[in-house]
Known about the structure:
Largest sheet: 2 strands, antiparallel
Shape: extended
Helix content: 40-55%
Radius of gyration: 22 Å
Amino acid sequence: xxxxxxxxxxxxxxxxxxxxxxxxxxxxxxxxxxxxxxxxxxxxxxxxxxxxxxxxxxxxxxxxxxxxxxxxxxxxxxxxxxxxxxxxxxxxxxxxxxxxxxxxxxxxxxxxxxxxxxxxxxxxxxxxxxxxxxxxxxxxxxxxxxxxxxxxxxxxxxxxxxxxxxxxxxxxxxx
Length: 175
């Protein structure tokens, strides 16, 4: 999880720097860490890309209802009438698997861009056309040396702590 968060942070920083953008935090769930988004992107446009999370949330609600109303052979409730965080996490994983669409055939990038643009305009009502910056897409898909960047940013090899440090930082897991 930490390596993934570091990778996402580095990619977002590089993309924002290359395109002259900035990020801002948005609280999705009170009491949890905020998510980082590109500043100035309308919420409607973000929701346009979040259809899958809506499907998962609806399925999760159904699974939670089934969970709290499930009875055993004697007619007694199987579980507590309140869903614990641990149970909710498992139910969320089940909902994600249950709502996962089948793989689709690959389409050319130009065709995908045209569809995304038309769909975004229909959703947001805004026909903003952002010019494509040559090389940015190619640069964004190159491998990122997370371990090297972490060492350069922290200034020391033992900057990583935890079991994953051997993999990410080339360390032993001990700092």
